[in-house]
Design brief:
This protein is an alpha+beta fold and 592 residues long. The chain is 42% helix and 27% strand. The protein is rod-shaped.
């Protein structure tokens, strides 16, 4: 028999007499031998009702790992110095306590001292606070969150879910997901649920949910179970994340990729991709197979087969240039599978990763073998035709030079001054035509001749043939066009010849110094403007000899041939300004 005085001495008066901290002593068989006043207050059992009875009287199934109310099982639980126990009071109610367990010696005998504090209200407050925080969190989440009980009946759905589904409140016992699910996906979802219930395992699905407006959007759903320590299913929690935009973007990307691959496969141009080492990646379209002779499965993962050993240095040089500039266009001669030389026009473009590193090069290839052969043939033919055309201009120029010489002989033989003058005028006209052909013969580009040289030489020749001894006439040129087709160059040359001839013949008869001729030829859009002036004495335009003279008739005819509009002023000296449309190419060009 243990005396209470011994117990008081061992555990101390405060604990012995405490009305808040319940304590009890058990013997080695876990039978109660002492309880204090607080024990009676907490459990409702009087000391006389429990002494000599097992501690199991107070314990619930939650106090044991195995769930069996066996003192030996309890001893494993109590081996911890401090732990939480669920105990029951006299009325059968359950409370959670924080327990300390110690072994003590009294009069040489071993006892177990158990001190417990009721923490039920603390736990309830913590649970309540936790639930409030949980609700606050779930109500502000952008995801749809819901919970089911262990049988699969809806218990809770957050505000995001209510707003999406268009419900203000719901009755859990009448709730059904079916109206909100896509019909074609019901079988898949039910199958997932059945497997999850059977195995008590989480699962995830990708399916559509109907919105309040009747439209469907894609959601990624993750559902997981809550199990207790005995692996019993307590509830299910589901989180649904809106991935509609992502799914549509992926679908759009798939469509784009499908179209891109279809375009690449249908392209008549060979397309393939390689890494920076020349290893073929995932592109090698049918055009590449036809052009080079190797099938995709023969080259994928291997070095380019048409780049042979003798071409490797050149090839890696092109790779380096492509990496430096991001793209490259070049021509190269390679051999196809049959060993034939083919000329390839190659374009490469770099593909970069997120670090800005070149991961692969997309290459397009055109077989330009026949094009190159044709180009060489055309160049040869063009050179031959240009040579022939130059020879024609040369012969025309020589034939006209013969005519000029014959006219000159006739001038020498003539004794009539008027006749000499007329022959000299004719000689100048022929010479102006011959000079055009001379310039074209000397030019490498028939559309780009030196017109300044032509008019300078033309006016100089006219002056040397027409000027009276002792008379001096300066001329100034401002030529800002570089080309003129032959069918406009000849009449314009003749026109300038007539104007200069008339100026030398009539304008400077009363002056022997300060005589001047100015010629300006300039472009104005698609037109050409010509301004010609002399500072001579001028003349009466209404005079009969002005309109009836051969020179003016020729001038008028040449202006009409050029389809020019013109203005003449002869009050102070003589000036004429005219404009005509430039025919740079076509049937009236130098190339004809």
């Amino acid at each position: 028999m243990i005396h209470k005085s011994d117990i008081r001495s061992i555990i101390g008066v405060p604990l012995y007499e405490s009305e808040k901290l319940a304590c009890c002593l058990t013997d080695d068989n876990l039978d109660l031998v002492f309880v204090n006043k607080a024990f009676e207050n907490v459990t409702g059992f009087l000391e006389s009702e429990v002494l000599g009875k097992s501690i199991a009287l107070l314990l619930t199934s939650d106090s044991y790992d195995s769930g069996e109310q066996d003192p030996s099982e309890f001893r494993k639980v109590a081996s911890l110095v401090r732990t939480n126990w669920f105990i029951k009071n006299k009325n059968g109610g359950k409370m959670e306590t924080s327990v300390e367990y110690h072994q003590i010696q009294i009069n040489g005998n071993r006892y177990q001292l158990i001190v417990a504090a009721d923490i039920t209200h603390v736990v309830h407050e913590q649970v309540k606070l936790s639930e409030e925080r949980y609700r606050q969190l779930t109500e502000t989440l952008p995801h749809i969150l819901w919970t089911f009980d262990g049988d699969g009946s809806l218990q809770y759905i957050n505000q995001t879910g209510k707003e999406y589904l268009g419900i203000s409140d719901f009755s859990p016992e009448e709730w059904s997901w079916r109206p909100y699910l896509y019909d074609d996906e019901l079988g898949m979802i039910n199958e997932k649920w059945e497997e999850a219930f059977k195995n008590k395992e989480a699962f995830h699905t990708l399916h559509r949910l109907k919105r309040y407006d009747g439209s469907f959007r894609w959601f990624q759903a993750i559902v997981f179970p809550q199990l207790n320590s005995k692996n019993e299913l307590i509830s299910w929690t589901g989180v649904c994340t809106d991935v509609d935009e992502r799914i549509k973007a992926l679908d759009s990307l798939k469509i784009t990729n499908t179209r891109l691959r279809s375009l690449i496969n249908a392209s008549p141009i060979a397309i393939y991709s390689i890494n920076t080492e020349g290893i073929v990646q995932d592109f090698w379209n049918p055009a590449a197979e036809r052009m080079l002779g190797w099938k995709k499965e023969e080259v994928t993962g291997k070095f380019l087969p048409h780049v042979r050993e003798e071409h490797r240095d050149e090839f890696f040089g092109l790779i380096k240039k492509t990496q430096q500039s991001g793209q490259l266009n070049a021509q190269a001669i390679r051999k196809d599978r049959a060993g034939n030389n083919i000329t390839l026009d190659i374009t490469g473009g770099c593909v970069y990763n997120e670090k800005g590193e070149v991961t692969e090069i997309l290459v397009t290839v055109m077989d330009v073998t026949e094009i190159e052969k044709n180009r060489k043939r055309l160049n040869k033919s063009l050179n031959e035709k240009e040579t022939l055309l130059q020879e024609i201009h040369h012969r025309v120029k020589n034939n006209l030079a013969i005519v000029v010489s014959l006219l000159q002989l006739q001038v020498f033989r003539s004794t009539d001054e008027n006749e000499k003058y007329r022959l000299t005028e004719a000689q100048n006209r022929v010479h102006s035509i011959a000079m055009v052909h001379e310039l074209l013969y000397q030019s490498e580009d028939f559309n780009n001749v030196d017109l300044h040289t032509y008019y300078d030489k033309l006016i100089g020749t006219i002056k040397s043939n027409m000027l009276i001894s002792g008379m001096d006439v300066e001329h100034s040129l401002n030529i800002s066009i570089h080309s003129l087709n032959i069918n406009q160059a000849i009449p314009l040359g003749l026109l300038v010849n007539e104007l200069v001839t008339n100026s030398l013949k009539y304008a400077f008869q009363n002056s022997d110094q300060g005589n001047r001729i100015d010629l300006t030829i300039k472009p104005d859009g698609d037109d050409i403007i010509v301004d010609y002036t002399d500072n001579g004495s001028g003349f009466d335009m209404s005079a009969n000899n002005f309109t009836s003279g051969l020179g003016m008739k020729i001038i008028d005819s040449l202006l009409h041939q050029l389809q020019a509009t013109y203005e003449i002023d002869s009050d102070d000296g003589f000036s004429i300004s005219f404009r005509f449309h430039s025919n740079s190419r076509g049937p009236h060009s130098n190339l004809n």
